[in-house]
Design a protein that fits this description.
alpha+beta
């Protein structure tokens, strides 16, 4: 997470989680499968916000975990497993809860 400034540090993009937490994501991470899928899910769930905010359909704990995996250069296998868990949980929860929480993350090693 980062400070509440509206401007991102150079080379980063600001995103928010469903619970309102603010993150500055390195631009290099935007090309990863996990971030790409979260952005796609964000568009499906929230559409394009008129205020310009990008809100991801996960809570802060999940986003911290995703960023941790990306910082540690997790293997493609771990990235796919997390992505599978994220997508599966969001589809299962679509009738009861729109965003995913910590309970959705099944991958714990890399």
């Amino acid at each position: 997470m980062s400070s509440s400034s509206s401007v991102a540090v150079k080379g980063h993009c600001v995103v928010y989680t469903a619970d309102g937490a603010r993150f500055e994501v390195p631009l290099a991470y935007l090309s990863t499968a996990i971030i790409g899928e979260l952005l796609s899910m964000s568009h499906d769930e929230f559409g394009f916000a008129s205020d310009g905010r990008i809100t991801l359909p996960c809570d802060a704990a999940v986003m911290k975990y995703v960023l941790c995996l990306l910082r540690r250069n997790a293997s493609e296998e771990v990235e796919r497993a997390l992505l599978s868990s994220v997508v599966r949980t969001c589809h299962q929860d679509s009738g009861t809860e729109s965003s995913m929480g910590v309970r959705s993350v099944a991958v714990s090693s890399f």
